[in-house]
Amino acid sequence: MGDAGAAARAARGDGAAAAGMRVFSPEYYALCAGGGMLAAGATHLAITPLDVLKVNMQVNPMKYSSIFAGLNVLVKEEGPSSLWRGWGGKFLGYGVQGGCSSASAQIIADVGLSPFESVKVRVQTQPMFAKGLIDGFPRVYATEGLSGFYRGLLPLWGRNLPFSMLMFSTFEHTVDFLYQKVIQKRKEDCSTIQQLGATCLAGYISGAVGTVVSNPADNIVSSLYNKKAENIIHAVKSIGLRNLFTRSLPIRITLVGPVITMQWFFYDTIKILTGLPTSGGLPRDLEKVNI
Fold first, then answer.
1. Domain ranges of the chain
2. Fewest Cβ atoms nearer than 10 Å: which of 23, 36, 143, 170?
3. DSSP per-residue string spanning 176-227
4. Share of the chain above pLDDT 70, in %
5. pLDDT value at position 91?
C-alpha cells in the first residue's frame, strides 16, 4: 500500500508539473482552495430558493408540507424575494467551507461555516430577524453572544463529517467502476467530455448517498439555530426519531445531488484548464503497482 501511495503522489505531481507548479506547493494549495471556494460558493448560491424552502420545511413541517405547497406559501405570503433570503450566508459560508476542500479538514471548515449557517437559518425562517449577514451578525451576537454562532456546531459536524467521508468514498469507488465497467478505458485514454461525464455521474450518486446519512443531523442543525430546541437531546425528542431520517429528505436529495454534481464539475473543469488531472479514477502509474 505504501508503493501505491507513492505512485499516486507521483501521478498528482506529474499533473501539477504540467500546470507549472510543484505538488503540495503554496501555489498548488492556493489553486485547490480557490477551486473549492468557487465551486462550493457558486453552487450553493444557485440553490438558495430550495434551501430556504428546505429549512422552513424542517422547522415548520405542518405549514410547509411539500415542495410545491411550500413554495406556493412562501411566494404568496412573503413574495418572490423571500426565496433568496440568506443568499450571503450560502455564498460566503460555503465558500469558506469549500476552500478547506477535504474531508480531513471538515472539522476546521465547519468552525468557519457555523456563524454563517447560524445567521442564514434565522434569516430564512424568521423574516423579521434580519435582512442578511450585515445586520444578522450583530443581532445574533447582541441576543446570544458568541455562543449563538456555535450552538449548532456539534450537529453540524454530525452532518458534514459523515457526509464528506461517505461522499468522497462513494465518488472514488463510482468513478473507478465507471472507467472499469462502463467506459472500459483508462481515464488518461478518455476524452475530456467522457472524463467530465464520469465526474458528474459519480458526483450525483455520491451526493445522494451522503444526503441520506446526514439528514438527521441536518434537521437538528435547523432546529437548534432556529431555537426550536435548546439542545441536541431536546431537538431529537421534539422532532422524533422517524422524522429525523425522513423530514425534508426528498427536497434535500433534490438540491444536494445537483449541487454536488456541479461542484465536482466546476472543480474538475478548473483542474483541466490548469493542466491537472480530473478527480478519481486509477492513474496510469498505479496500474503497474501490485496492490
1. 15-288
2. 143
3. HHIIIIII-S-GGGS-HHHHHHHHHHHHHHHHHHHHHHHHHHHHHHHHHHTT
4. 84
5. 77
